Amino acid sequence: MAKKSTRNTRGRIVSAAWKLFYEQGYEDTTVEEIIELSGTSKGSFYHYFDGKDALLSTLSSLFDEKYEELTGLLTPEMTAMEQLLFLNRELFHMIEDSISLDLLARLYSTQLTTNGEKHLLDHNRIYYKLLRKIIAKGQAEGQLSSRSNVNEMVKLYALCERALLYDWCLCAGEYALTEYSAKVLPGFLSSFLP
Q1: Is 138 in contact with 79 (CB distance < 8 Å)?
Q2: Which residues, 6 or more positions from 95, have their beta carbon under 8 angstroms from its beta carbon?
């Protein structure tokens, strides 16, 4: 029970922070506002985070929460490719609607310059576990090619998503991310098909 309470407190802080970052901007959001919106205490905040900058690395956690939510919407009738494209569409839609371009760019820059943990590449994330499960099942059922192993295909899929997000940031969001991904991702993933 203590572990769940810990996760809920940390999760409330992360959710409140990203809501405020989106609505007010990163620079204009204070730790005090995050604490107030999350309904936690200053002690709780500093137990989990050294400061506001430490929250930038939690975007991958926010993404994983979305993947947990989406897992329940995947049906056995969907092929592995349909599941992958569904996850991409829903996550990119969430990003367009609730993550500012500036913050996404900051996340990428921190991941490029950090000497520490690269949260986006953490293969223990829900994201990677879910991709491995979908791709392994797709290969076992003959829906996806077995020319590459599961981990290679997961890496390629993640690489394609990061490339799309990175390009969207570089282009300052001048196009609709979800629509563009729906056009190009199937072509990128065509090598996945048998």
Answers
A1: yes
A2: 104, 165, 177
Q: What is the largest CA-CA distance in the chain?
A: 54
CATH 1.10.357.10 at 51-192, yes or no? yes
As a three-state string, the secondary structure of 42-94 is HHHHHHHCCCHHHHHHHHHHHHHHHHHHHHCCCCCCCCHHHHHHHHHHHHHHH
Contacts of 6 (CB under 8 A, 6+ apart): none
3-state SS, residue 1: coil
Closest CA to 120 of 36, 58, 43: 58
Q: DSSP secondary-structure letter at 172?
A: T
- CATH of the domain spanning 1-49: 1.10.10
Q: What is the pTM of this model?
A: 0.79
Question: For residue range 60-118, what is the model confidence (pLDDT) as tens digits?
Answer: 777 888 899 999 999 999 999 999 999 999 999 999 988 878 777 777 666 665 555 55
Is 61 within 8 Å of 14 (Cβ atoms)?
yes
